[in-house]
Design goal:
The protein has 471 residues and is α/β, with parallel strands linked by helices. The chain is 43% helix and 8% strand. The protein is built from 19 helices and nine strands. The strands form two sheets. The chain has a seven-stranded mixed β-sheet with strand order 3-4-9-8-5-6-7, with helices on both faces. A two-stranded antiparallel ribbon has the order 1-2. It is globular. It starts with 50 loop residues before the first helix and ends in a 7-residue tail after the last helix. The N terminus is likely disordered. The structure holds tryptophan. The site of tryptophan has 15 residues, from β5 and β8.
Length: 471
Amino acid sequence: MSNLKLNLSKTARFEVFSIPDDKNVEMPTTPKRIETGSAPASRPTKTPSTASDRAKDIAPVTLNYVGADEEEVASTKPGDSATVDAKKEQVVDPWSVESEGAIDYEKLIQQFGTQRLDKNIIERFEKLTGKKAHRFLRRGIFFSHRDLSMILDLYEKGKKFYLYTGRGPSSEALHLGHTIPFHFTKWLQDVFDCPLVIQLTDDEKFLFKQELQLEECNRLAYENAKDIIACGFDLKKTFIFTNLDYIHHMYPTILKIQKLTTYNQARAIFGFTGSDNIGKSAFPAVQACPSFSQAFKIPLRGEKNMPCLIPCAIDQDAYFRMTRDVAPRLQCNKPALVHSKFFPPLQGRGGKMSGSAANSAVFLTDTPKQIKDKINKHAFSGGQDTLEKQRALGANLDVDVSYEWLTFFMEDDDRLAEIGRDYASGAMLTGDVKKELIGVLQTMVADHQVRRKEVTDDVVKAYMAVRPLEF
Ligand code: TRP
């Protein structure tokens, strides 16, 4: 999951990344027509210094493809409400999440052309695996997917597939938001009993973060691996790698992907400009690569075309739209995906957490006291401002961060529902809810710290050794 600045800038008004991809169709291979929308023609004059700066500054253009599969072309055309409603368009891409208020996830499903992770598929999931759905599924935190049914079909038939997820190592300590895809992936690994590869994109962070040195990115990857391992992955079934160290195994596949992707496509999906370094344009092929089992000859034991399921936050979807587009031309299966929502910052307002703002996040290194103080001081409250009013009117759960965080981390459905009821009715006060949350987080973080202590350099080496996995 990315670890980038939450940007709630009010100037967001562009739609560079809304590639029409409706009905689960990937970006057409050869754009026959690219329309630039109502955007100013000029590009930013200064060279953006970081990826998120770049994402902010990029020339606002609306790109519309009319590709080979005419009937499958999605609905976002100039004139649709998505483009007309240009005042403050929400922007969700691998480098920034911008929104004036809460993120409209329904709209993302439409814009990206993904499928809603609905009750039916969750029920099928439970029936097939015989396991109660993870709370992230029960509560709509993983809310969208591509081809998850295909993975369930395979499971039903006893066929093999593998999981792929990753992290861009740009900071020393992970915060709670970073752990969400990993906890979910660990659960999927247990439920499906399948192999897993985890990509640490030290190269990506080096290319996209002007201030970071290469050696530092590689070091952070190894540091972050410890927190990832502490989430509990099965050593026999899990291979963790940094791109810098594993690249030669992937390079043949990367080259094939690069040859099948034009600069225009990369630019349209990712918004690269002439002043971005050329490494950025090449990088998406590196993130796409682990979706193909041929890149893991040793870990996946020579499986040439093993299907892949990728759990990730929805901001990463751009990479995998591109991946799914090249897959058939590589004679490979398209990877399936499950997408999560963002974990909100303590201050609320519907963005994703920033690792750099200490007070908007709870880190896995925080002490019980730090957790308590952060929640008490900074968690945005949907409660009323006086005791009398709260008792009379109750809280607005939709904007209350403590309650929302509880929906991510409190396991007990009944207790959560009770808190929701009592807080909304005014029987509970903000302080009571914060106390519940503080308790849950203190336990969770302390448990993590115990497990992390056990992850020595040798343990990291074992997970990162290029070796056959057991499956
Ligand atoms: N680009 C991701 C990030 O910045 C890291 C990543 C690489 C990833 N491969 C992935 C995330 C696959 C999810 C799934 O965090």
